[in-house]
Amino acid sequence: MTDTTSGTRAAKGGAAKGGKPSGSKAGAGLRVERIYTTPGVHPYDEVSWERRDVVMTNWRDGSVNFEQRGVEFPDFWSINSTNIVTSKYFRGALGTEQREWSLKQIIDRVVLTYRAAGEKNGYFASPADAEIFEHELTHALLHQVFSFNSPVWFNVGTTQPQQVSACFILSVDDSMDSILDWYKEEGMIFKGGSGAGLNLSRIRSSKELLSSGGNASGPVSFMRGADASAGTIKSGGATRRAAKMVVLDVDHPDVEAFIETKVKEEEKIRALRDAGFDMDLGGDDITSVQYQNANNSVRVNDEFMQAVENGTDFGLRSRMSGEVIETVDAKSLFRKMAEAAWACADPGIQYDTIINQWHTCPESGRINASNPCSEYMHLDNSSCNLASLNLMKFLREDDTFDAVTFAKVVELVITAMDISICFADFPTEKIGDTTRAYRQLGIGYANLGALLMATGHAYDSDGGRALAGAISSLMTGTAYKRGAELAGIVGPYDGYARNAEPHQRVMRQHADANAAAPRGDDLDNPIWAAATETWQDVLRLGAKNGFRNAQASVLAPTGTIGLMMDCDTTGVEPDLALVKFKKLVGGGSMQIVNGTVPRALRRLGYQSEQIEAVVAHIADHGNVVDAPGLKTEHYSIFDCAMGERVISAMGHVRMMAAIQPWISGAISKTVNMPEKATVEEIEEIYFEAWKLGVKALAIYRDNCKVGQPLSAKTKNDGKAEAKPSAPAVVQKVVEYRPVRKRLPKGRPGITTSFTVGGAEGYMTANSYPDDGLGEVFLKMSKQGSTLAGMMDAFSIAVSVGMQYGVPLETYVSKFTNMRFEPAGLTDDPDVRMAQSIVDYIFRRLALDFLPFETRSALGIHSVDERQRHLETGSYEPSDDVDVDVEGLSQSAPLATAKPQAVPSAPAPAAVQPLPTPAVHNSTELLELQQGINSDAPLCFSCGTKMRRAGSCYLCEGCGSTSGCS
Description:
The protein is of the alpha/beta class and 965 residues long. The protein folds into 4 domains: 325 residues, no CATH class; 194 residues, Alpha-Beta Barrel (Anaerobic Ribonucleotide-triphosphate Reductase Large Chain); 122 residues, no CATH class; 103 residues, no CATH class. The chain is built from 28 helices and 28 strands. Strands 5, 6, 7, 8, 9, 12, 13, 14, 17 and 18 form a 10-stranded mixed beta sheet that branches. Strands 4-3-26 form a 3-stranded mixed beta sheet, with helices on one face. A 3-stranded antiparallel beta sheet has the order 19-20-21. Strand 15 and strand 16 form a beta hairpin. The longest helix is centred in the middle third of the chain and has 29 residues. The protein is globular, with a radius of gyration of 30 Å. The two termini are 37 Å apart. The N terminus is likely disordered. Keywords: Cobalamin, Cobalt, Disulfide bond, DNA synthesis, Nucleotide-binding, Oxidoreductase. Catalyzes the reduction of ribonucleotides to deoxyribonucleotides. May function to provide a pool of deoxyribonucleotide precursors for DNA repair during oxygen limitation and/or for immediate growth after restoration of oxygen. Belongs to the ribonucleoside diphosphate reductase class-2 family.
């Protein structure tokens, strides 16, 4: 293949050296530059492929809810990403020849469709450029550099309508015909698995009259019907709750009723739950409660916020005449919003003035609403297709950010996204017309939290915000620059001529914000420099050619596609926790310390032994507090969304504010607050977000909603209690007692000498002939001392317990980390430090007698395993057990004295529970470590506990989301 690219071609696997990305017009089409690929070599031929079995189970009842064997994936794709792509994105009926079975098939299905549409619509200068485009897009998807949103994978290249958008905004007017159209249009979108948002403020309030003279129903009443419709359609079309956003302007006369809708329903949920009804999300009885299928937001403007600031009154206006029909105290209304959010997390808040100040198309209409996750904001009856870049793919080995390659990939992806509008189908004619006329796109990114930690930046820090802002500025600037280049080739969007001046004004606002942004350090300064140059190109090319897209970027939750790309963090979120839950090849799961931790420590200047000690501490405790040798000023770098050290609510808001000036739309993010947070703190968050220029915000106070039943009493139990006259059923009670299994006269054993903090001792551990520890004897050096006597008694008690069936892992989980003297250094290389003799004893027993997965789940590793973690980011063994961590398949022998039996051939990739207590994802693992109880809902598909991703919930087990990603 002939390389037609101008400039220096990138080396294999890297970017072009020097210069900046170019997309110069050549003749009637775009010249496409190579980024990763090599002429004459297809991307598929550069990776190793392997066959895997995907078997996914429901944790609640153990049933298999998905099974497909023999699927083909690259060997560096994790088990989790393999499971999600196979179950979510492979098309065709299971068990038929039409069923897709290889990642190659779905990438080809999408990429070849994009190439064909690009050639048909005149995007490329030559067939050679089209081929480069195809290969580069294939390479980037294959290597998890970016991903399109889910509807692309669902629909593109199939025989069904090729819907590519995940985000929709509808509109409704003050007429029954329009309201019924709203119900129908929303239902069609839900049926296709997407979500929609709309503003109900055009509907007259319940305080206004109809033309017939009666009182109007008001928007809150019509919300009830739409909510019931959404709850019904989602059960027939998708196995998740419908995703929708309902917005009401703050000057609507029914705004107080709107604010209180979900508060009252939450009280009803709690009352019904306490009465024994199943009020879990998805439970049998939750459908009796209203308004549960939508996120609600109040749209406030500067006039209202200034009235709150000044303590003055604010007027609620008639929908028909615009006259003030009621005056309220602004502070009191603002307080009611905060109280409602405190009670049930709704409503969120959207800042209307700042949203419309950054609107590129005001001549075509205002921005009135958003999609359900609140990141897409543009014209009514429009849609947006999304794609997100994996930021960790641009972090070089020397911990610098590859801005040149990043910009090149943005150009590639934004070109593909624009091409998709040429062939896309839409759920309604109005949405199709608006989208084709304005061509709204939503490029974004994921893994920001992991990138910041890996580079030694605290999420809530000036340096972290500077790096995030620089990347956001370069991304959006590059997207608009490519849009201006495309406008010179295939023309600007249809609505551009009408909106040329405001669109260029918004571009100048972006450029001015870039120039005024505070710089941080040597890591972000080069990115800012590249962004500055890019924005100058945007202004120059935009003035000449116009722009191809009315909108370029948003920051979405990246739920399912984040898991597809093996991202540690979603969207703009920080890391959930420092200890991760990982699935293993052949089944099973384990916990490992986040691989970005050692990388961050190396960047901060810590030596190998220090890093090993910190990592071991995190494995034991789940946090860095009191980690040996770690400076306290570095603690904040490892702060997470949950756990011992939690990022403050204002830390989240400040990050959003640092990014917002370079995002065309908004940011999907929920600010998590502790259960003890006050209404006043929520008021402060809402107010400061307005001051800082954030476009939209939602808060979530822990345990403010009923996520699952907290009472052990079932609905049936409740009914039985309500009928005391019913005859009692006499049941025979059978009592089961444990039976002691004594060891035979001759038994195998291991005697270990040890020293802990200067105290010497001997431990003899004897096993049953058929394997399994049966007794432990402990002898301290000074016979007759109190310590020796207590150790004798303690070992007898433990031994008897083992013979009655108490598992060793139970003792290990209870007695490790117990602190008392003597404590300190030991003479055991696998356990260098012990907090007590008991702590040492059970760590040594775990290493000698527990299988790798079991003790790894308890954070206990040998010196060889810890060394392997420093080198590869993985504790996992790899000669006897195939495992996959951080996208790399590893092989090494088990470092245990008593190796576990391992099947020679890989077992089906079913997810098996960890040893008791069982956990199934990172949320449940964190609950176990921290002793907390998350009130996130359970996944409809697989039964595991979901976790927050932006404004939605994400299931790490199967990739299901409660939103529109």
